[in-house]
Structure formats: C-alpha cells, structure tokens
Design brief:
Elements (H helix, E strand, L loop, with lengths): L7 E4 L4 E6 L2 E7 L3 E6 L4 E7 L26 E2 L20 E8 L2 E9 L2 H6 L4 E9 L3 E9 L5 E3 L1 E3 L2 E3 L7 E3 L4 E4 L5 E4 L3 E3 L4 E5 L5 E6 L4 E8 L3 E6 L1 H6 L12 E8 L8 E3 L4 E9 L1
Antiparallel strand pairs: 1-2, 2-3, 3-4, 4-5, 6-12, 7-8, 8-9, 9-10, 10-24, 11-23, 12-22, 13-22, 14-17, 14-19, 15-16, 15-18, 18-21, 19-20, 20-24, 21-22
Length: 293
C-alpha cells in the first residue's frame, strides 16, 4: 500500500503522521529502518515495508475504506472471538474505532500503541468489560502484540487471531514450512488430517494447524526472500487462501488477488466462545506475531 501519496491530517513527530485514506485515518510511520501504516479503524496494520524491500503485508487493491467495513488485507484483529462462532464474524474489534495512545521512536524504529475499551456499543454485542492494547513495533522487523485485560468483576472467555495477510510474488510458487503436519480442515467438515511438513498450494486452503513450530517460513522465489513468522500466545496457526472462486465472491478483492498473498495467522482457536480461554478479573493475556524477511 502506497502510504506516501495519502494526504496528511496532522504531523505528530519527525517519523509519525496521521494520514487519511477515504474515511479512514491511518497512523503513518516513516523511519530509516522501515515504513508502516496502522489504521485507526480496526486497529489494523495495513503496511510494513523494511527499507529497500517490497511490502511484507498484502492489502487488497479494492479494500473498502469507508470506516464501516472490515478492511481486506493487512492484519485484521479477530477479537473477542475468531471465526463464525458468534456474530459478527471474527468479533467486533476489526470494525471498531481505536484510539492512538502513544508513539515512541529512536534510532532503531518506532513503537505505536492503540487502545480499545469496552463501550455501550460493545456491551450490546458482548456483555463484558475489557481493555485491549495493540502495540506495533516497527524496526527491521514487525512485531504486533495484542494485550487483553479483564477489567470486569467476573471471568469471561474469548478467542482471537492476528489474521495476517502476507505479500508473496506468486502463491503457486511459494513454499511453506514450520506449520506442522496436523490440521483441522475447515473445507472438509473440520476433519483432523495428517499432512506433510512442506506445503505448496494449488487450490483453496482453510486450515487450523494444531502443532505449529515456533517459526513458520514462506520461501518466495519470485520476490527472492524468505518470510519468517514467529507467533506467541497462540495455540494454533491458521493458513488461508480463497483461490480464484473465493476471490471472485468477494467484492473487496480483485479476482486475481489470491495470487499474491497467503494468510498465516497467530490464533487462539476455540470451537465456541464457551470453550475459549478464560480470563479472570485483573488478568492479562497477550497474542503476538513477529514478521521479518
């Protein structure tokens, strides 16, 4: 995503400005080490480009920046649930307006922190008090941390994901390792399947890998790089690509959009909200993904 061409709303420091894409304000980071963009709509990372490289993050050319729809591409925050186990699908965080809490910078990079707290609107969807923070560290690598606090007087359960869309030169040539061999296949009635240690795609995929290694690697011969995805706080890694038929069914993705991305998601997976992670009053949980090339 070309952040440089967007109009500036306000300059916050030498490295951090607020820019605007249609109806969405974006925190733009321009540092010697890397550039990045984090939309306030959804707390959504839309770009991360280390100096001298192609963007590591994929955004749809037809993503809708109306401040209402979830953005297609980037790193959507699925919370307080992942999937279609409740409405709206993937929770409400990715459709909510986040607040810029602070930004810090030094020679190594920039840290941006956004916040989302329970409100009358969120309580109508999910009747619990919470405070969540998104900490985005932009250096030679991208580190995204979702910090969840239960500020209620009773425990609640949740699931979630950092639904990262990664930019690849050609999905048919990209090779994935480190995801593990066992997965739940959402395209085959959630059957548990034993697969291989290496994955090259030739069709749509929607899999919950249950035993991922600490690092998942995408070897990309077209862009001549290997992406490393390191996740923490997760219990699964979700891999997804809709392929041609899926892309054609989405109004916010070009028909050929599937050719240049793969989702590798740091996921706290649960088949229902009740079976999710329980967080007691005063407790904190953190889900994290680190992406480098």
């Amino acid at each position: 995503m070309d952040l440089r061409s967007l109009p500036v709303v306000s300059a916050l420091s030498d490295c951090v400005t607020i820019v605007e894409k249609d109806a969405v304000k974006i925190v733009r980071v321009m540092h010697d080490k890397a550039s990045a963009g984090i939309a306030l709509h959804g707390g959504h990372v839309v770009s991360f480009q280390p100096a001298g490289q192609e963007d590591l993050i994929w955004m749809s050319d037809t993503a809708i920046f109306d401040g209402k729809a979830a953005l297609r591409g980037g790193i959507p925050i699925c919370w307080p649930w992942f999937g279609r186990i409740a409405a709206p699908a993937h929770g409400f965080a990715r459709n909510s307006t986040w607040q810029l809490i602070e930004h810090r910078e030094n020679d190594n990079g920039v840290i941006v922190e956004l916040g989302l707290d329970s409100s009358e609107e969120s309580l109508r969807i999910w009747p619990h008090l919470f405070s969540i923070r998104l900490i985005v560290e932009v250096t030679e690598q991208l580190k995204v941390s979702l910090k969840v606090d239960n500020i209620d007087q009773q425990p609640w359960t949740f699931s979630g994901a950092l639904h990262t869309y990664l930019n690849v030169g050609d999905i048919k040539q990209a090779k994935v390792t480190g995801m593990g061999s066992e997965y739940i296949d959402s395209l085959q009635n959630d059957d548990v399947i034993q697969g291989g240690q290496e994955l090259v795609l030739s069709d749509t995929i929607d899999r919950v890998y249950t035993q991922p290694e600490s690092d998942i690697l995408i070897q990309d011969p077209v862009l001549q790089r290997t992406l490393t995805i390191t996740n923490h706080g997760h219990n699964c890694a979700v891999l997804w690509n809709p392929w041609l038929e899926g892309a054609q069914s989405m109004g916010d993705m070009p028909d050929n959009g599937y050719e240049t991305f793969l989702c590798v998601e740091s996921t706290l997976h649960a088949p229902s909200i009740e079976q999710g992670k329980t967080l007691h009053p005063g407790e904190t949980y953190q889900l994290e993904t680190i992406i480098s090339a």
